Amino acid sequence: MHISRLQLVNYRNFACANFHFNKNINTIIGENGSGKTNVFRAIRLLLDENMSRSALRLEERDFNRGLVDWRGHWIIISLQFDEVSDDEAIQALFVHQTGVLGEDPVERATLNLIFRPKASVRQAFAELAAGDQDGLLKLRESITVLDYEPILTGKSIADFTDPAVYRALVGNFDTVEFPAVLEAPAIGVRLPHSLAIQREVCFTYVQALRDVVAEFHNTRTNPLFALLRSKTGEIDHAEFDPIVTQVAQLNESIELLTEVKAMRSDIHGTINDAAGDAYAPASLSIRSDLPAEAEKLFQSLKLFVGETDAAHEDAIHELSLGGANLIFLTLKLLQFKYQRDKQSFANFLLIEEPEAHIHTHIQKTLFDRLKYPDTQVIFSTHSTQISEVSNIRNVNILGRTGNYCEVYQPAHGLTIKQQDAVQRYLDAVRCSLLFAKSVVLVEGDAEEILIPILVKAVFGLSLDELGVSLINIRSTGFENVANLFHVNRIRKRCSIITDRDATFFDVTPNPADDPELAKTKRDAIASAEDGNRRFDRLTGFAAGNPYVELFFAPHTFEVDFVAAGNRQPIVRALPEIYHQQAAIERWTDWIEEPHLATSGWAALELAKKTKKGWFAILLGRYIDHEVVIPEYIADAILFAHGTPSRNVLAKILRYRAKCSLDPDLEAVELASLTSSISQYEEGVIDLAGLRTEVLGKLPNDAILPILAKV
Predict the structure, then answer these.
(1) Exposure of 479 by Cβ count < 10 A (0-12 exposed, 13-18 middle, 19+ buried)?
(2) Confidence band, pLDDT 50/70/90 cuts, at residue 267
(3) What sign does the CA torsion over 642, 645, 649, 652 have?
(4) Do 405 and 37 contact (CB within 8 A), yes or no?
(5) Which of 488, 531, 538, 674 is the most exposed place for a label (fewest CB within 10 A)?
């Protein structure tokens, strides 16, 4: 049996989320603050016997912050299990509790935690007249979290993430229409307390490894104590009885020490002197209280580890963070193995962010080896090393969107062939794209090297600060990766930047052409034809997908870099390519030629001569704030990032003002412009007013074409 689905409705940072899990190992990927811990807590509320039953009574802070008013809404946590064993005892449990109606034997089961208003409050909602907003407001104002109840149900058939189903169960707050039936069959039947799945499954949760030393000092959370306690019932009395005798003898020996007896006498005498015989205690003794019980004796045991030298062992608090975390994780895994040996009918192991302070190679090895038979393992992580070896079919990705988080299944709807193509790419390349807020895909090294430099030079902000990840596909086969970004998969923006490879010089064949020129023309024509086919292919691929947009360089990167007016960075880089002044002057003339047939050819030849990647590195040294980002690249960045917020746009324009205006010579203009930027940031003036101000103060600035697009 394994968890196949988790639904979260109005729970913490999840407004409406559907997680899908498979057997064996699953991974939940997400940046910090995306809700990975909340997902695990939701599962624990239903399956972890160590969670207090009082934890089921949720609090106001557990409601999703995106709700305008949480009062009256429900929190729903629903687990679905597949491949339920046909064992008679297991079937009995699920038939009585959580089995889905109509299946014999039960193969799929559900278990739900519903936090909802009590019956009297639901009745008050039902009695409201349709459209009575005043009555609704008055009723909601009277509700507190104490008017809520937690219930556990099974045998449910509802898709709680369907807005229509939710309105049918809870009501429509916009139209003030609430169901008259207070106990809808769709939520399932209440579960009796006498039967609890938690006691029948093996469930282990390994929390994020943030302060392992403190965990070892806490007798409740120390995994070594938990392991030792589990073994106390297996102790051979023939082995342990001599230890009990020795402890008793040791206690007696300590009590008979001369210093101990003298102290007892001094204490007794001092009390008599201070209080008198009438009020002094009748007797007083100092006793050794070393425990003779196995469990208490085990608590005195400490773990020592030789991290680097087998001849020297250190206590846990003396180990490196990585070493302590690895030991803690190992003990928790052993604790799970001990529990699993009890032959539960389902085994669940949840591990939260195991990568903390653990070497990248250990992370990969850990994930690859953590495979227990008949056990479902769920990792949460923001480690590219762990996610790199995760099977794309078993991944749930969390993404933050305003006040809530969404969950994406990147393999959903892809064919096996398409999944394998994505998996091969992720196996070969760091899969930072799975963590990205948005993505720009490029085809070569020049774009990978120079686009981040261009953005930083013009915007004053890095791509990372803008939340954009640049991924070099190293080919024009974008479809394999871009397939991930879709309304049914990862709902994040993806820009594809590639070359159209149109010709920029006369390619008409001429019998007078020398062989080299004839070949150059043939190659240019072939490239243009390839560019047209690529345009048609990718345009068809992206059609109808709002998350993928294409941005074509009219020719190729180096040519269009020059066409945008960026000749000086190339000229300044020439001394690093040629040492003879005559050659530098000759190439300078070609680069500064206004006709693209000459200047574009020269830029492309320089890139070929030095290799495109190295040429991009050289060029990057001479790019400053005056560079112009080619239009197709600027468009790609703006699509991936989305409309810049007032705060982001204000940062960019303050940077442009400092770069373009001399604060000593043009102090008045600088002060006026920065004042307008602040007014825009505060909402005093609109974007049109800001554009007018920037145009007046920075009439030829490189930011103006981009600002016009915002």
Answers:
(1) middle
(2) confident
(3) negative
(4) no
(5) 488
**Sequence-separated (6 or more) residues with CB below 8 Å from residue 460:** 625, 651, 652, 654, 655, 656, 659
- Nearest Cα residue to 208 out of 357, 29, 47, 391: 357
Of 36, 2, 32, the closest CA to residue 17 belongs to 36
Which value, to the nearest 10 degrees, does the dihedral of the CA atoms of residues 116, 117, 122, 128 take? Answer: -110
In this structure, are residues 79 and 165 in contact, taking their beta carbons and an 8 Å threshold? no
d(CA 433, CA 642): 17
* 60, 78, 469, 507 from 122: Cα distances, Å: 18, 21, 47, 78
β-bridge partners, 154:
111, 189
202-206 and 347-352: which strand pairing?
parallel
Per-residue pLDDT tens digits for 12-56: 999 999 999 999 889 999 888 889 999 999 999 999 988 888 899
Model confidence over 289-321: pLDDT tens digits?
Answer: 777 777 677 666 767 777 666 666 766 666 666
Tell me the pTM: 0.82
Radius of gyration of the chain (CA): 35
Q: How far apart are the C-alpha atoms of 484 and 492, rounded to whole Å?
A: 9
CA torsion sign, 630 to 632 to 638 to 641? negative
What amino acid occupies position 169? Answer: L
Interval 194-237: pLDDT, tens: 567 887 888 888 887 666 666 766 666 677 777 776 666 667 77
Helix, strand, coil share of the chain (percent; to 5): 50, 15, 35
How much is the pLDDT for 15?
A: 95
Q: What would the pLDDT profile of 634-657 be if each residue is shown by its tens digit?
A: 999 999 999 999 999 999 999 999
User: Rounded to 5 degrees, what are φ and ψ at 169?
Assistant: -85, -45
End-to-end CA distance of the chain: 52
